[in-house]
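Lab notebook: predicted structure, single chain.

Context: the supervisor wants predicted structures on file for every construct in the current expression panel, including those that have not yet been purified. This is the next one on the list. No modifications to the sequence; it matches the entry in the shared construct table.
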Amino acid sequence: MNVRCENLVIGSGPGGSVTAGLLAEAGRDVVVVEEGGGDGRPPEPFSLEEMVARYRYRGLNPSFGKPKVAFVEACCLGGGSEINSALYHRTPADVLEEWQRDYGLDGAGPREMEPYFEMVERSLGVGNSPGPLPAPARKLRDGAEALGWSSTEVARWVRYGDGRRPDGSPAGVRTTMAGSWLPRVQSAGGRILTSVRVTGLQRNGGGWTASVRGGEGIRADHVFLCGGAVQSPLLLRRSGIRRNVGNTLAMHPTIKVVAMFPDEVNYAGLGVPFVQVKQFAPRLTFGSSISSPPHLALAMLDYPEHGRGVMERWQYAAVYYVAVTGPATGKIRRIPFTEDPLIRYEPEARDLHDLATGIRNLCRLLFEAGAVELFPSLPCGGPLRTADDLPKLPAAVPGSRTNLMTIHLFGSCPMGEERERTAVDSWGRVGDAPGLAVHDASILCSAPGVNPQGSIMALAARNTLHYLGRA
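Prediction complete. Output recorded below exactly as produced.
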């Protein structure tokens, strides 16, 4: 491989696809490189086949701390948009104001971000479901109503047709990057290269050379790094760029509970239900998770003596979660002589206490919704069968023997004008490296408390249009 271009976009997820699409449609020469593949028949969503084909390390990514937090990363054309739940949130106004106050972030207040959110929403067809809620979502809503708690239907980037699911809810298809922004890149003349891993960046006169595994490299005038909250800081550090890079990884640590109901709530192709309980937001969020048989089996690993019985009646089971807005305590470092990162993340004592309180309240809600048996992912001496069993839950999540996970990572290259705590400026530019910018979840200053992909796309659009002189 020996490629020359004006603009190199590394990564094809939401940040990279929006960046490349706007550059290409402005008439700029653009090359997108993606480490993962993108050819062939798309696998069934949330299946084992998808985990093998589209997840980095097949979804087995650990961070080290007490307790450990497992996380997932996409590695495919379209990035995280291909494997996520398609839930859409704007960045909360109070979060944007916090970033302005604490990080000196310019030009990204709630009113200033409005046109970029609207652009993203139009491009993806963001909206609410046109029909009844899926059964697990109805359970969550009904339990919240019984307790007088607030719940909300979350908008999604889904295209709905006339089809119906077994529970009467409308069938839809996720509007991924591979089906939206990446075709725009190609239609405007941009080039997309898959199965290409960039291993380093070097200054080359007035531009950059991206070293490529198994190739000579790619020369570009400008580089937009969009590899995600782990891979982007890892590549920067490998390239000798380390100021405030990879020191502040933030997450939404999440704990799950499997609920058994007397009536059927689960079926093949259910997807992720789209109701969340925000009674305790922004600190805690309750929601429904993917409940396909493979994911259900993973959620039952803490109860080996009960797993077979639950799997035999999987149509009556659903997975729910509590997510906490965690601190930016994570560190990303390279491991010598390998391409893999070492990730350390230590939830604080407050997080562990709040997660335990959250799982207790979620279990209370699920019993109100009619659950007959609950299997929380933390040690409690066996399944819970009535609300009288809730005192068995610990007051804080133990530092060991607890399975935490997350699908949301950010903040490892925070943006803003406070140079003592930021890695890039308010427009994603790496200050000591002209022609290099970061346009992905890395630049979110802290955990936003919501699904970050809407924030990533809106900020990528804003920063790209600023680069083009159109913001």
